[in-house]
Amino acid sequence: MNASSLQALAFTFRGETLDALPSGALHWPAESLLVVSDLHLGKSERAARRGGPMLPPYEGIDTLTRLASDIAATGARTVVCLGDSFDDAAAADALDDATAAHLAPLMAGRRWIWIEGNHDPGPIGLGGTHLAILRHGPLSFRHIADTGAQGELSGHYHPKARLAGRGRGIVRRCFLVDRARIVMPAYGTYTGGLHCDAPELQALMLDDARAILLGQPPVAVPMPRRRQEVPPRARRADRTG
After folding, report:
1. CA-closest candidate to residue 163, choices 112, 123, 102, 215
2. CB distance 219 to 9 below 8 Å
3. What predicted TM-score, i.e. pTM, was given to this entire model?
4. 79 near 31, Cβ under 8 Å?
5. 84 with 104: CB under 8 angstroms?
6. Helices (runs of H) and strands (runs of E) counted in the chain
7. For residue 160, which of 183, 180, 190 has the smallest C-alpha distance?
8. Distances in whole angstroms, Cα of residue 123 to Cα of each of 35, 74, 84, 95, 116
9. 8, 17, 105, 163, 189 from 21: Cα distances, Å
10. What is the full DSSP assignment across 54-71?
11. CA-CA distance, 186 to 166, in Å (whole number)?
């Protein structure tokens, strides 16, 4: 399928054409490869186990249902999960039968790669290939960005952008893209996010960075930047010329 039929936004990165999907997945058509990050399956189970809020225990099925739609739409033969696929290692071990029943058919008949995250090392008991880093052609895949890397796809930060418009602001999950790297949005249903004007992301992304806001279809805008505060003495000097 092409990007327009998926309501995806096609863009070029390191000489490759990639499609940013409305869901937050990324499709590499030439390699029949689909990338998702930060599924955080089992988040409701982990919250209950730690005495936190009792969340409806359906986020895993919702996340995997969306992933099934993306796999069907793209026909991907390889799926790369960029880490924090489960909310922690115990959540992977405690995967309920209903969620497992949704995951197994997605993995069947295709290459499935679990990248190690900081929340979990990858669900060993579920099959697939487990790697700290995947390198494929001009691209590399890891969970947390390496500041010196080139052609890198990573997750971890759950980026989202806040934009002002018509008297009120809107917040959307987003991809962050510059000439060196792509930071993926979180794909999981119960995942929060870090605003892209946060210092960590401001320091990571280069000056040419764009934010691709999730939507129908996704929309690319310049990455919002933090306003630089002008010291009071400098402001007085400006006024006096």
Report:
1. 215
2. yes
3. 0.86
4. no
5. no
6. 6, 16
7. 183
8. 17, 25, 10, 10, 9
9. 5, 13, 21, 20, 16
10. ---TTHHHHHHHHHHHHH
11. 27
Number of neighbouring beta carbons within 10 Å of residue 84? 27
89 or 6: whose pLDDT is higher? 6
Please state, in angstroms and rounded to a whole number, the distance separating the CA atoms of residues 128 and 115: 10
Residue 227 tokens, joined: 């306003």
DSSP, collapsed to helix, strand or coil, labels residue 77 as coil
Rounded Cα distance between 45 and 98, Å, is 13
Tokens of 22: 């409305």
Q: State pLDDT tens for residues 162-180.
A: 877 666 778 899 999 999 9
Query: CA nearest 125: which of 155, 152, 98, 89?
Result: 89
Among 86, 96, 107, 74, smallest CA distance to 37 is for 86
- Between residues 5 and 40, which one has the greater pLDDT? 40
73-103, pLDDT tens digit by residue? Answer: 999 999 999 988 886 555 565 577 788 888 9
φ/ψ of 165, rounded to 5, equals -170, 130
**Adjacent-strand bridge partners of 213:** 174, 219
